[in-house]
């Protein structure tokens, strides 16, 4: 194994980092990510598409040595559990986002780690450090604007970066040597794909699930001495260079100071609204203006947003829940109407509301290069010509305006309170928020299984 390759350096980092090397602040943030991941995954239980995925996975279960799935607590092979849980945690589009790289890290990472954690009996503290290590690898790879460039050119950053992240995380968790870790990461990276054209459909959460599942499989193959393309991230024909068609691109930034601060998981962002993160600043502005207007009397709405927000979330129509989450117009209409942007606000009742659809039709979206991906400016005018303006410099949930433990606790109980028996939700939250003690994973998963 050549440690001068990028894959080799990621492998050295994954294999060479001890549990104690990960700062306590990064471990605490990993727990926060775990709480949020469970919440959005369990919250998806009422979604018809999630039920369809669960049914499909049941038909291919391997009960010989299984891992639990979030929706049913039932057993599946590690790869299938990772697939299902990666999908479930991304269906609501309510999961975390590392804004600099546009990586939804928890979806593929926790789905993969908990599946191998159950099947291989990995200690909880090593799963936490594995999450931080894998997150570091994936987020650093997508830094320096690469995640945004991938997105602009039609690639879904999460399954591209997430396969590298999840394979590095598993390599750390399973205590692979650097050679085995390198082949695991290389094999996972070689499967990278996913398109922004899938946004607004079930293919988007499937991308996250496949990233987790492919990483589990890649680790199993590497452990069995299957070799991967160790130079896949290097040179003019490397993975990212090919995806971006930039054959002079170098990725040295991804491994410089890889084990040094900042730990990227500490710069992760959580979502207060169940929609694309690029809609959140506009929702914040709309909710602020809702206290100054009567939505039915508005005749004009202008939203100044980052150009990428227009590209990704500029849908003219919102006919389904998945489409509504990627429609700035619909999201702004929700906010102006005083709705909280919960998962229920992207259900059939709201989508079929003629007043909301009419209001959404009045929204003009303006690509504004002075805006960031977490800022927006909203201007409204009513039938009498009265105008109001509100600007959001940093959306709630962003790095500069973060959601903290108390916010995530409320989000957790809002999402799971009607999915679990009354006594189990507090027990699960306590287990996850203190994750790291022996037996925590088995106990947490047992709380998902009926009758236990």
From TrEMBL:
Protein name: 2-methylcitrate dehydratase
Family annotation (InterPro entries): MmgE/PrpD_sf, MmgE/PrpD_sf_1, MmgE/PrpD_sf_2, MmgE_PrpD, MmgE_PrpD_C, MmgE_PrpD_N
Pfam families to which the protein is assigned, alphabetical: MmgE_PrpD_C, MmgE_PrpD_N
Domain MmgE/PrpD N-terminal: 9-249
Family from the record: Belongs to the PrpD family.
Domain MmgE/PrpD C-terminal: start-end pairs: 273-424
SUPFAM superfamilies cross-referenced by the UniProt entry: 2-methylcitrate dehydratase PrpD
UniProt GO molecular function: lyase activity
Domain of life from the UniProt record: Bacteria
Signal peptide: none
